[in-house]
């Protein structure tokens, strides 16, 4: 097969036939480069180009700084870091055959705490989905200050608007790649899952996707206007400018990243607790989607309870020991004391001692183990369960329980561990510093990838609809 050329609304693109026999297109612009007056503004369609655009190499990524985890190589999940270039609002596409017709489409939104990551990371290889008979699309979107900081005179929830623009691009163009624009499954992990959950509750998304998979995220990880504006003021003070889009457009990307790093340092962020005393990011990221605009006119969880997204089939799930990724490699699991555990939760929760003592603090359990269990529930599992219980459409729930053997098995079923299995790409994270360790189970990867494909193709992953905890699928 020769490298195929596919027309799009902005111009023709040339893909590449891979050794696995599928066709891959990388770095196709779905929106114009967010520079000049388009910074902190609504995405607009990519301008047309002449001739055939080559898309055989990964394109630029959203501006970001790497924050490595000690002892682990998470590059296959997070990417290699910032690849500078203005045209980074792009999609990658894998298809079994551009000339095919009406194949199910899966659109993936990467995670990274709304601060980093890329859809072109090695673990998000779409080969397995394409070989099964689906078209996979991965999305790049604006992050951090560029994507999730509300500024006077600017557009809010820019990162979510980018994702909506990518979905519009899919609807208009995916048939040329063999996909069915009437059968689109939107899925994401971590902050990507928060994004999917937010779009599930957004009035701007109906018709853009028909199924959704939310992996280790939920619609409660959002901020109110007051907390978001408080963050904008602190970032502006760090830059010594006013918190306006006009002022921020005059600041270089490197300066923005420096200010972002300053906010991420201990004590650098303002108090981001809401009126009830909760920091909905639980210290994992100061940058979250904001409630109170046309993308999220009301809390997305409330909208979902009221029926938003009820016509969208849903899978929602998490890993059973999410927070081990954050506490084990740093040594905090063993080092944290009872008082330190309470103090660390106090910046995010109005009753930290009550929560931790309910999980067994002071009753012979180590403070680190208590903190892992409590935060896994507070940050991930509780919100996932709430989403599954209150989504008014067809819903399936899972929990990923296979534990990594790395670091003497102490990582357990930690955050992000399911992703290489979902993409049936466990080799990408195997090895002495890979998240999966040596010889991860290939059968589990085939099972999860197959379940996600079946859901995209038929609306059922192959297990029972959610009707309480005893109907949850356990992956191990």
Automatic annotation (TrEMBL):
Q: Which SUPFAM superfamilies match?
A: alpha/beta-Hydrolases (SSF53474)
Domain of life, per lineage: Bacteria
Annotated region (Disordered) at 41-73
Q: Does the keyword NADP apply?
A: no
Similarity remark? Belongs to the type-B carboxylesterase/lipase family. Belongs to the 'GDXG' lipolytic enzyme family.
Write the lineage as a comma-separated list.
Bacteria, Bacillati, Actinomycetota, Actinomycetes, Pseudonocardiales
Q: Which Gene3D superfamilies match?
A: alpha/beta hydrolase
This one is known as Carboxylesterase
**Which residue intervals define the domain Carboxylesterase type B in the entry?**
3-462
- Is this entry keyworded Hydrolase? yes
Q: Which organism is it from?
A: Amycolatopsis balhimycina DSM 5908
Per UniProt, which keywords does this protein have? Hydrolase
One Pfam family recorded for the sequence: COesterase
Q: What molecular function terms (GO) are annotated for this protein?
A: cholinesterase activity
